[in-house]
Specification:
444 residues, alpha+beta, five-stranded antiparallel sheet, 15 strands, 28% helix, rod-shaped, DNA integration
Protein backbone atom coordinates (compact mmCIF):
# COMPACT_ATOMS: atom_id res chain seq x y z
CA UNK A 1 0.00 0.00 0.00
CA UNK A 2 2.72 2.25 -1.15
CA UNK A 3 2.37 5.88 0.00
CA UNK A 4 -1.42 5.68 0.31
CA UNK A 5 -3.00 8.32 2.54
CA UNK A 6 -6.71 7.43 2.54
CA UNK A 7 -8.98 4.42 2.44
CA UNK A 8 -12.45 4.23 0.89
CA UNK A 9 -14.98 1.83 2.39
CA UNK A 10 -17.98 0.44 0.49
CA UNK A 11 -20.73 -1.47 2.32
CA UNK A 12 -23.65 -3.44 0.91
CA UNK A 13 -26.57 -2.27 3.04
CA UNK A 14 -28.37 -5.62 2.76
CA UNK A 15 -25.57 -8.09 3.54
CA UNK A 16 -23.22 -5.69 5.40
CA UNK A 17 -20.40 -6.98 3.20
CA UNK A 18 -17.55 -4.42 3.10
CA UNK A 19 -14.82 -3.64 0.58
CA UNK A 20 -11.89 -1.34 1.22
CA UNK A 21 -9.81 0.58 -1.33
CA UNK A 22 -6.68 2.59 -0.63
CA UNK A 23 -6.10 5.97 -2.27
CA UNK A 24 -3.16 8.27 -2.72
CA UNK A 25 -5.52 11.17 -3.44
CA UNK A 26 -9.23 11.65 -2.85
CA UNK A 27 -9.67 12.32 -6.54
CA UNK A 28 -9.13 8.58 -7.17
CA UNK A 29 -12.45 7.75 -5.48
CA UNK A 30 -14.39 7.90 -8.77
CA UNK A 31 -12.12 5.31 -10.43
CA UNK A 32 -12.50 3.07 -7.37
CA UNK A 33 -16.27 3.27 -7.55
CA UNK A 34 -16.35 2.23 -11.20
CA UNK A 35 -14.19 -0.80 -10.44
CA UNK A 36 -16.28 -1.62 -7.39
CA UNK A 37 -19.54 -1.44 -9.35
CA UNK A 38 -18.24 -3.69 -12.14
CA UNK A 39 -16.97 -6.27 -9.66
CA UNK A 40 -20.04 -6.49 -7.42
CA UNK A 41 -22.58 -6.54 -10.27
CA UNK A 42 -20.70 -9.39 -11.91
CA UNK A 43 -20.35 -11.37 -8.67
CA UNK A 44 -23.84 -10.89 -7.26
CA UNK A 45 -25.86 -10.69 -10.47
CA UNK A 46 -27.64 -7.58 -9.16
CA UNK A 47 -27.40 -3.96 -10.24
CA UNK A 48 -26.27 -1.10 -8.03
CA UNK A 49 -29.47 0.91 -7.56
CA UNK A 50 -28.42 3.68 -5.18
CA UNK A 51 -25.35 5.08 -3.49
CA UNK A 52 -25.50 6.83 -0.12
CA UNK A 53 -22.57 9.09 0.83
CA UNK A 54 -21.76 12.42 2.45
CA UNK A 55 -21.18 15.62 0.51
CA UNK A 56 -17.43 15.23 0.21
CA UNK A 57 -15.84 16.70 -2.87
CA UNK A 58 -14.70 13.27 -4.06
CA UNK A 59 -18.38 12.19 -4.32
CA UNK A 60 -19.72 15.46 -5.75
CA UNK A 61 -17.48 15.82 -8.81
CA UNK A 62 -19.12 16.39 -12.17
CA UNK A 63 -17.74 13.09 -13.49
CA UNK A 64 -19.20 11.14 -10.55
CA UNK A 65 -22.62 12.76 -10.86
CA UNK A 66 -22.75 12.31 -14.66
CA UNK A 67 -21.73 8.64 -14.35
CA UNK A 68 -24.49 7.86 -11.84
CA UNK A 69 -27.01 9.72 -13.91
CA UNK A 70 -26.19 7.78 -17.08
CA UNK A 71 -26.26 4.45 -15.24
CA UNK A 72 -29.55 5.23 -13.49
CA UNK A 73 -27.97 5.05 -10.04
CA UNK A 74 -29.84 7.04 -7.44
CA UNK A 75 -27.71 9.36 -5.31
CA UNK A 76 -28.57 9.65 -1.61
CA UNK A 77 -26.66 12.45 0.14
CA UNK A 78 -26.57 13.37 3.81
CA UNK A 79 -27.37 16.82 5.10
CA UNK A 80 -24.30 18.85 6.00
CA UNK A 81 -22.92 18.03 9.42
CA UNK A 82 -25.31 15.08 9.84
CA UNK A 83 -23.19 11.90 9.64
CA UNK A 84 -25.91 9.98 11.52
CA UNK A 85 -27.93 9.89 8.29
CA UNK A 86 -25.33 7.46 6.94
CA UNK A 87 -24.87 5.62 10.21
CA UNK A 88 -24.05 2.19 8.74
CA UNK A 89 -20.86 3.22 7.00
CA UNK A 90 -19.91 5.80 9.63
CA UNK A 91 -20.13 3.17 12.37
CA UNK A 92 -18.19 0.72 10.23
CA UNK A 93 -15.46 3.31 9.64
CA UNK A 94 -15.09 3.84 13.37
CA UNK A 95 -15.03 0.10 14.04
CA UNK A 96 -12.35 -0.50 11.40
CA UNK A 97 -10.17 2.33 12.70
CA UNK A 98 -10.41 1.20 16.33
CA UNK A 99 -9.75 -2.40 15.37
CA UNK A 100 -6.73 -1.51 13.24
CA UNK A 101 -5.31 0.70 16.00
CA UNK A 102 -5.68 -2.11 18.55
CA UNK A 103 -3.88 -4.59 16.31
CA UNK A 104 -0.99 -2.21 15.71
CA UNK A 105 -0.51 -1.47 19.42
CA UNK A 106 -0.89 -5.12 20.45
CA UNK A 107 2.23 -6.14 18.51
CA UNK A 108 3.97 -2.73 18.69
CA UNK A 109 4.01 -2.30 14.92
CA UNK A 110 4.95 1.05 13.34
CA UNK A 111 2.11 3.25 12.07
CA UNK A 112 3.34 2.68 8.53
CA UNK A 113 1.47 -0.64 8.70
CA UNK A 114 -1.89 1.13 9.10
CA UNK A 115 -3.13 0.12 5.64
CA UNK A 116 -2.30 -3.54 6.25
CA UNK A 117 -4.12 -3.37 9.59
CA UNK A 118 -7.19 -1.73 8.00
CA UNK A 119 -7.35 -4.31 5.24
CA UNK A 120 -7.04 -7.16 7.78
CA UNK A 121 -9.73 -5.59 9.98
CA UNK A 122 -12.19 -5.45 7.07
CA UNK A 123 -11.27 -9.02 6.13
CA UNK A 124 -12.06 -10.22 9.67
CA UNK A 125 -15.25 -8.18 10.10
CA UNK A 126 -16.68 -9.74 6.94
CA UNK A 127 -16.24 -13.12 8.64
CA UNK A 128 -17.70 -12.16 12.02
CA UNK A 129 -21.42 -12.56 12.88
CA UNK A 130 -23.53 -9.41 12.76
CA UNK A 131 -26.66 -8.62 14.81
CA UNK A 132 -28.34 -7.08 11.78
CA UNK A 133 -28.05 -10.43 9.96
CA UNK A 134 -29.38 -12.63 12.82
CA UNK A 135 -26.11 -14.35 13.70
CA UNK A 136 -24.97 -14.67 10.10
CA UNK A 137 -21.70 -13.34 8.75
CA UNK A 138 -21.63 -10.78 5.93
CA UNK A 139 -19.54 -13.16 3.87
CA UNK A 140 -22.20 -15.88 4.11
CA UNK A 141 -25.03 -13.46 3.40
CA UNK A 142 -23.24 -12.16 0.30
CA UNK A 143 -21.84 -15.41 -1.14
CA UNK A 144 -24.29 -17.98 0.24
CA UNK A 145 -21.61 -20.15 1.85
CA UNK A 146 -19.98 -20.19 5.26
CA UNK A 147 -16.49 -18.70 5.45
CA UNK A 148 -13.48 -20.74 6.49
CA UNK A 149 -11.71 -19.51 9.59
CA UNK A 150 -9.02 -22.15 10.10
CA UNK A 151 -6.46 -19.97 8.33
CA UNK A 152 -6.95 -16.91 10.56
CA UNK A 153 -3.87 -15.88 12.55
CA UNK A 154 -2.89 -13.14 15.00
CA UNK A 155 -2.02 -9.95 13.14
CA UNK A 156 1.60 -8.85 13.60
CA UNK A 157 2.85 -12.13 15.04
CA UNK A 158 6.25 -13.59 14.23
CA UNK A 159 6.31 -16.33 11.62
CA UNK A 160 8.82 -18.55 9.85
CA UNK A 161 8.53 -18.62 6.06
CA UNK A 162 9.83 -21.53 4.03
CA UNK A 163 12.51 -20.58 1.50
CA UNK A 164 11.89 -22.50 -1.78
CA UNK A 165 14.58 -25.06 -2.49
CA UNK A 166 15.41 -23.37 -5.80
CA UNK A 167 16.38 -20.20 -3.91
CA UNK A 168 18.77 -21.76 -1.40
CA UNK A 169 21.56 -24.29 -1.27
CA UNK A 170 22.03 -27.17 1.14
CA UNK A 171 23.85 -25.23 3.86
CA UNK A 172 21.38 -22.37 4.07
CA UNK A 173 18.48 -22.29 6.49
CA UNK A 174 15.15 -23.64 5.31
CA UNK A 175 13.19 -20.64 6.59
CA UNK A 176 13.55 -17.02 7.66
CA UNK A 177 11.65 -14.82 10.10
CA UNK A 178 8.92 -12.48 8.90
CA UNK A 179 5.95 -10.58 10.31
CA UNK A 180 2.39 -11.55 9.45
CA UNK A 181 0.55 -8.47 8.15
CA UNK A 182 -2.53 -9.79 6.34
CA UNK A 183 -4.12 -12.09 3.81
CA UNK A 184 -3.64 -12.25 0.07
CA UNK A 185 -5.97 -10.25 -2.15
CA UNK A 186 -6.09 -12.44 -5.24
CA UNK A 187 -3.91 -15.27 -3.94
CA UNK A 188 -4.53 -18.04 -1.43
CA UNK A 189 -1.65 -17.10 0.81
CA UNK A 190 -0.43 -14.84 3.60
CA UNK A 191 1.04 -11.35 3.29
CA UNK A 192 4.32 -11.21 5.19
CA UNK A 193 6.73 -8.38 5.86
CA UNK A 194 10.43 -9.24 5.72
CA UNK A 195 12.33 -6.93 8.15
CA UNK A 196 15.64 -7.59 6.38
CA UNK A 197 14.62 -6.63 2.86
CA UNK A 198 11.74 -4.35 4.04
CA UNK A 199 9.43 -5.82 1.46
CA UNK A 200 6.09 -7.58 1.43
CA UNK A 201 6.11 -11.19 0.23
CA UNK A 202 3.40 -13.77 -0.30
CA UNK A 203 3.68 -17.35 0.88
CA UNK A 204 1.49 -20.27 1.88
CA UNK A 205 4.23 -22.33 3.60
CA UNK A 206 4.36 -20.48 6.92
CA UNK A 207 4.75 -21.55 10.55
CA UNK A 208 3.21 -19.04 12.97
CA UNK A 209 4.40 -18.24 16.49
CA UNK A 210 1.37 -16.21 17.55
CA UNK A 211 2.63 -15.46 21.05
CA UNK A 212 5.81 -13.72 19.85
CA UNK A 213 6.19 -10.34 18.16
CA UNK A 214 9.08 -8.67 16.36
CA UNK A 215 11.30 -6.40 18.45
CA UNK A 216 11.55 -3.02 16.73
CA UNK A 217 14.76 -1.95 18.41
CA UNK A 218 16.40 -0.36 15.38
CA UNK A 219 14.75 3.01 14.57
CA UNK A 220 15.58 2.53 10.91
CA UNK A 221 13.14 -0.37 10.82
CA UNK A 222 10.32 2.15 10.88
CA UNK A 223 11.12 3.10 7.28
CA UNK A 224 8.66 0.62 5.83
CA UNK A 225 7.88 0.38 2.13
CA UNK A 226 4.98 -1.94 1.34
CA UNK A 227 4.28 -2.25 -2.38
CA UNK A 228 0.69 -2.94 -3.37
CA UNK A 229 -1.26 -1.99 -6.49
CA UNK A 230 -3.22 1.24 -6.21
CA UNK A 231 -6.86 1.06 -5.11
CA UNK A 232 -6.24 -2.42 -3.75
CA UNK A 233 -6.73 -4.00 -7.19
CA UNK A 234 -4.71 -6.50 -9.21
CA UNK A 235 -2.34 -9.13 -8.03
CA UNK A 236 -0.13 -8.28 -5.05
CA UNK A 237 3.59 -8.27 -5.61
CA UNK A 238 5.01 -11.74 -5.13
CA UNK A 239 8.70 -11.18 -5.42
CA UNK A 240 10.86 -13.73 -3.63
CA UNK A 241 14.54 -13.38 -2.81
CA UNK A 242 17.45 -15.67 -2.20
CA UNK A 243 19.12 -14.97 1.13
CA UNK A 244 22.84 -15.35 1.60
CA UNK A 245 23.06 -16.53 5.23
CA UNK A 246 26.16 -18.69 5.15
CA UNK A 247 27.88 -16.56 7.76
CA UNK A 248 24.89 -16.78 10.06
CA UNK A 249 24.75 -20.55 9.58
CA UNK A 250 28.44 -20.87 10.40
CA UNK A 251 28.09 -18.76 13.54
CA UNK A 252 25.17 -20.89 14.68
CA UNK A 253 27.09 -24.10 14.11
CA UNK A 254 30.11 -22.79 16.01
CA UNK A 255 27.95 -21.76 18.95
CA UNK A 256 26.26 -25.17 19.03
CA UNK A 257 29.61 -26.96 19.04
CA UNK A 258 30.81 -24.85 21.96
CA UNK A 259 27.67 -25.63 23.95
CA UNK A 260 27.48 -29.39 23.36
CA UNK A 261 31.17 -30.30 23.13
CA UNK A 262 31.45 -33.41 25.38
CA UNK A 263 34.06 -33.98 28.02
CA UNK A 264 36.42 -36.57 26.54
CA UNK A 265 37.88 -39.17 28.86
CA UNK A 266 41.50 -40.19 28.59
CA UNK A 267 42.21 -43.86 28.00
CA UNK A 268 45.07 -45.27 30.04
CA UNK A 269 46.63 -48.70 30.03
CA UNK A 270 49.38 -50.10 32.26
CA UNK A 271 52.35 -48.83 30.26
CA UNK A 272 51.17 -46.18 27.82
CA UNK A 273 48.97 -43.08 27.77
CA UNK A 274 47.31 -42.35 24.47
CA UNK A 275 47.31 -38.82 23.07
CA UNK A 276 43.77 -37.48 22.93
CA UNK A 277 44.71 -34.19 21.23
CA UNK A 278 42.93 -31.81 23.63
CA UNK A 279 41.30 -28.63 22.28
CA UNK A 280 40.43 -30.48 19.06
CA UNK A 281 37.14 -32.03 18.07
CA UNK A 282 37.28 -35.74 17.30
CA UNK A 283 34.56 -37.93 15.88
CA UNK A 284 33.19 -41.03 17.59
CA UNK A 285 34.87 -43.16 14.93
CA UNK A 286 38.26 -41.84 16.04
CA UNK A 287 37.47 -42.60 19.66
CA UNK A 288 36.33 -46.12 18.83
CA UNK A 289 39.37 -46.70 16.64
CA UNK A 290 41.65 -45.71 19.51
CA UNK A 291 39.67 -47.86 21.93
CA UNK A 292 40.16 -50.85 19.65
CA UNK A 293 43.92 -50.44 20.06
CA UNK A 294 43.66 -51.40 23.72
CA UNK A 295 40.89 -54.02 23.26
CA UNK A 296 42.07 -57.46 22.23
CA UNK A 297 39.72 -59.81 20.41
CA UNK A 298 40.74 -63.50 20.47
CA UNK A 299 41.92 -64.96 17.20
CA UNK A 300 41.34 -68.58 18.23
CA UNK A 301 39.47 -70.71 20.71
CA UNK A 302 42.64 -71.28 22.73
CA UNK A 303 43.00 -67.56 23.41
CA UNK A 304 39.32 -67.11 24.26
CA UNK A 305 39.35 -70.08 26.61
CA UNK A 306 41.80 -68.24 28.86
CA UNK A 307 39.23 -65.49 29.66
CA UNK A 308 36.16 -66.17 31.76
CA UNK A 309 34.06 -63.54 29.90
CA UNK A 310 34.69 -65.19 26.54
CA UNK A 311 33.84 -68.60 27.96
CA UNK A 312 30.56 -67.22 29.25
CA UNK A 313 29.84 -65.76 25.82
CA UNK A 314 30.44 -69.12 24.10
CA UNK A 315 28.24 -70.94 26.62
CA UNK A 316 25.46 -68.42 26.06
CA UNK A 317 25.69 -68.98 22.31
CA UNK A 318 25.42 -72.76 22.67
CA UNK A 319 22.56 -72.40 25.13
CA UNK A 320 20.62 -70.32 22.62
CA UNK A 321 21.31 -72.86 19.86
CA UNK A 322 20.03 -75.71 22.01
CA UNK A 323 17.01 -73.71 23.13
CA UNK A 324 15.93 -73.14 19.52
CA UNK A 325 16.34 -76.83 18.62
CA UNK A 326 18.84 -75.89 15.95
CA UNK A 327 20.57 -79.25 15.69
CA UNK A 328 20.52 -82.88 16.74
CA UNK A 329 23.47 -85.11 17.59
CA UNK A 330 23.62 -88.08 15.16
CA UNK A 331 26.13 -90.60 13.87
CA UNK A 332 28.55 -89.39 11.24
CA UNK A 333 27.19 -90.10 7.75
CA UNK A 334 29.46 -91.66 5.15
CA UNK A 335 27.66 -90.39 2.05
CA UNK A 336 27.27 -86.77 3.13
CA UNK A 337 29.95 -84.12 3.66
CA UNK A 338 30.38 -82.73 7.16
CA UNK A 339 30.92 -78.99 7.41
CA UNK A 340 33.31 -77.58 9.94
CA UNK A 341 32.40 -74.82 12.39
CA UNK A 342 34.35 -71.94 13.81
CA UNK A 343 34.10 -69.51 16.71
CA UNK A 344 34.00 -65.81 15.83
CA UNK A 345 34.67 -63.27 18.59
CA UNK A 346 33.67 -59.63 18.66
CA UNK A 347 33.77 -56.91 21.30
CA UNK A 348 30.62 -54.73 21.31
CA UNK A 349 31.22 -51.07 22.28
CA UNK A 350 28.98 -48.29 23.58
CA UNK A 351 28.83 -44.89 21.90
CA UNK A 352 31.40 -43.52 24.34
CA UNK A 353 33.89 -46.26 23.45
CA UNK A 354 33.43 -48.35 26.60
CA UNK A 355 32.95 -52.11 26.37
CA UNK A 356 29.32 -53.19 26.33
CA UNK A 357 29.80 -56.96 26.12
CA UNK A 358 31.83 -59.76 24.56
CA UNK A 359 29.98 -61.67 21.89
CA UNK A 360 30.85 -65.14 20.58
CA UNK A 361 29.17 -66.51 17.49
CA UNK A 362 29.38 -70.09 16.17
CA UNK A 363 29.41 -70.04 12.38
CA UNK A 364 29.49 -72.81 9.80
CA UNK A 365 32.19 -72.93 7.14
CA UNK A 366 29.64 -72.64 4.39
CA UNK A 367 32.27 -71.90 1.75
CA UNK A 368 32.87 -75.66 1.50
CA UNK A 369 29.31 -76.28 0.26
CA UNK A 370 28.48 -76.51 -3.44
CA UNK A 371 25.27 -75.06 -4.84
CA UNK A 372 22.92 -77.65 -6.33
CA UNK A 373 24.60 -80.43 -4.37
CA UNK A 374 24.58 -79.35 -0.75
CA UNK A 375 21.88 -76.70 -1.08
CA UNK A 376 19.49 -75.25 -3.67
CA UNK A 377 19.09 -71.63 -2.63
CA UNK A 378 19.93 -69.26 0.18
CA UNK A 379 17.60 -66.63 1.53
CA UNK A 380 17.99 -64.25 4.45
CA UNK A 381 14.87 -62.25 5.38
CA UNK A 382 15.74 -58.66 6.28
CA UNK A 383 13.65 -55.52 6.84
CA UNK A 384 13.70 -53.01 4.00
CA UNK A 385 14.52 -49.40 4.81
CA UNK A 386 11.27 -48.33 3.12
CA UNK A 387 9.33 -50.44 5.61
CA UNK A 388 11.24 -48.99 8.56
CA UNK A 389 10.70 -45.42 7.36
CA UNK A 390 6.98 -46.08 6.87
CA UNK A 391 6.69 -47.51 10.37
CA UNK A 392 8.50 -44.52 11.92
CA UNK A 393 6.33 -42.05 9.97
CA UNK A 394 3.15 -43.85 11.06
CA UNK A 395 4.31 -43.88 14.68
CA UNK A 396 5.06 -40.16 14.54
CA UNK A 397 1.61 -39.39 13.10
CA UNK A 398 -0.23 -41.61 15.61
CA UNK A 399 2.07 -40.54 18.50
CA UNK A 400 3.05 -44.13 19.24
CA UNK A 401 6.04 -45.13 21.34
CA UNK A 402 8.79 -46.97 19.47
CA UNK A 403 11.05 -49.48 21.18
CA UNK A 404 14.21 -51.02 19.77
CA UNK A 405 15.46 -54.46 20.74
CA UNK A 406 18.09 -56.90 19.60
CA UNK A 407 16.88 -60.41 18.78
CA UNK A 408 20.22 -62.16 18.92
CA UNK A 409 18.81 -65.51 17.77
CA UNK A 410 16.81 -64.19 14.81
CA UNK A 411 19.07 -66.04 12.36
CA UNK A 412 17.95 -69.36 13.85
CA UNK A 413 14.48 -69.09 12.28
CA UNK A 414 15.55 -70.43 8.89
CA UNK A 415 14.16 -73.96 8.49
CA UNK A 416 16.38 -76.30 6.42
CA UNK A 417 14.99 -78.77 3.88
CA UNK A 418 18.39 -80.21 2.98
CA UNK A 419 20.50 -82.59 5.05
CA UNK A 420 23.33 -80.53 6.49
CA UNK A 421 25.82 -81.90 9.00
CA UNK A 422 28.36 -79.91 11.01
CA UNK A 423 31.18 -80.82 13.34
CA UNK A 424 30.90 -80.41 17.09
CA UNK A 425 32.22 -77.00 18.17
CA UNK A 426 35.76 -76.86 19.42
CA UNK A 427 36.02 -77.05 23.20
CA UNK A 428 32.53 -78.45 23.57
CA UNK A 429 32.85 -81.95 22.17
CA UNK A 430 30.78 -84.34 24.26
CA UNK A 431 32.74 -87.10 25.98
CA UNK A 432 32.47 -90.60 24.49
CA UNK A 433 30.70 -89.02 21.47
CA UNK A 434 33.68 -87.67 19.61
CA UNK A 435 32.69 -89.46 16.41
CA UNK A 436 29.20 -87.99 16.30
CA UNK A 437 28.17 -84.85 14.42
CA UNK A 438 25.23 -82.47 14.46
CA UNK A 439 22.49 -82.53 11.87
CA UNK A 440 21.09 -79.04 11.40
CA UNK A 441 17.34 -78.44 11.65
CA UNK A 442 17.78 -74.71 11.12
CA UNK A 443 20.29 -72.51 9.39
CA UNK A 444 23.45 -71.78 11.34
Amino acid sequence: MSENRYFLLFIDDYTRMAWVYFLRNKSNAFECFKKFRAMTELQSGHKVKSVRSDRGGEFMSNEFLAYCSEAGIQRQLTVAYSPQQNGVVERKNRTVIEMAKSMLHEKSLPYEFWAEAVHTAVYLLNRCPSKSLKKMTPFEAYTGRKPGIAHLKVFGCLCHVLIPSVLRHKLEENSHKCIFVGYGLCEKGYRLYDPKTRKIILSRDVYFDEEVSWKWENPSNADVRMPMPDENQGTAETEQRALDEQSQFADTQMQMEEEIAPQREEILDETQRFDHTPHKWRSINDIMAQCNMCIVEPDSFEEADLDESWRSAMEAELEMIEKNNTWKLVDRPFDKPVIGVKWVYKVKLNLDGTVQKNKARLVAKGYSQKPGIDYNETFAPVARLDTIRTLIALAAQKEWNLFQLDVKSAFLNGILKEEVYVEQPQGYVQESKETKVYRLNKAL
